[in-house]
Amino acid sequence: MHNNEITSFRKYPQEIGGSVSVTQGIQVEVQAILQHMFCRFDKEIFEQVPKYFYVYQVRISVVPPG
């Protein structure tokens, strides 16, 4: 993530715990990335902790038969 914009999608999202699934010729790739700068862990500063913030990326494509 750069300037709060997603800049790239890994070629193999499974390398970072992502998922790839193909069903009836449709491939879905998903990866989630923890954005620690938005997470809240300190109870002395924030009332409702812990809070986690993730960015999810999804890529959907058609896989040619064969």
List the main descriptive attributes of the protein structure presented here:
single chain; 66 residues; mainly beta; three-stranded antiparallel β-sheet; 3 strands; elongated
Task: Give a concise summary.
With 66 residues, this protein is mainly beta. 0% of the residues lie in helices and 35% in strands.
Can you walk me through this structure?
With 66 residues, the protein is an all-beta fold. 0% of the residues lie in helices and 35% in strands. The protein has a three-stranded antiparallel β-sheet with strand order 1-2-3, with no helix packed on it. β1 (19-23) and β2 (26-34) form a beta hairpin. The chain starts with 18 loop residues before the first strand and ends with a strand. The relative contact order is 0.26.
Question: How are the SSEs placed, and which strands pair?
Answer:
Elements: E1 19-23, E2 26-34, E3 54-62
